[in-house]
Specification:
- The protein has two helices and four strands, in the order ααββββ.
- The chain is of the alpha+beta class and about 100 residues long.
- The protein has a single domain, classed as Roll (Nuclear Transport Factor 2, Chain: A).
- The longest helix is centred in the N-terminal third of the chain and has 15 residues.
- The chain starts with a helix and ends in a 6-residue tail after the last strand.
């Protein structure tokens, strides 16, 4: 019984840290934890969602994005997942990703 509880606890804990695009984490120079810190430094508040993905454009092809709620408004803060450079920091639009 105790080992079953331990396995269930491990599964529950690991799923709490999952995010969209987690498969790209092995390619990022910065961890999702570090990119959230960068995003919160740029826009203090509470992270309500996070994701990473691959795309073409400015900087490396790996991106991260955090939706941050600040003063009852949700902002999307995103950047380059290799350098940490902020590429987006604005109000979440009506058609949120």
């Amino acid at each position: 019984m105790a080992s079953g509880f331990a396995i269930l606890t491990i599964i529950a804990c690991t799923s709490a840290f999952a995010y969209t695009g987690e498969k790209y984490a092995t390619h990022d120079n910065l961890s999702m934890h570090k990119t959230i810190g960068i995003a919160l430094n740029a826009r203090p508040g509470k992270v309500v969602s996070k994701e990473s993905w691959s795309m073409n454009g400015e900087g490396s092809s790996l991106r991260y994005s955090s939706d941050i709620k600040s003063h009852a408004v949700t902002y999307e803060v995103g950047g380059d997942a290799k350098s940490g450079k902020i590429l987006e920091n604005g109000r979440e639009g009506p058609n949120a990703d």
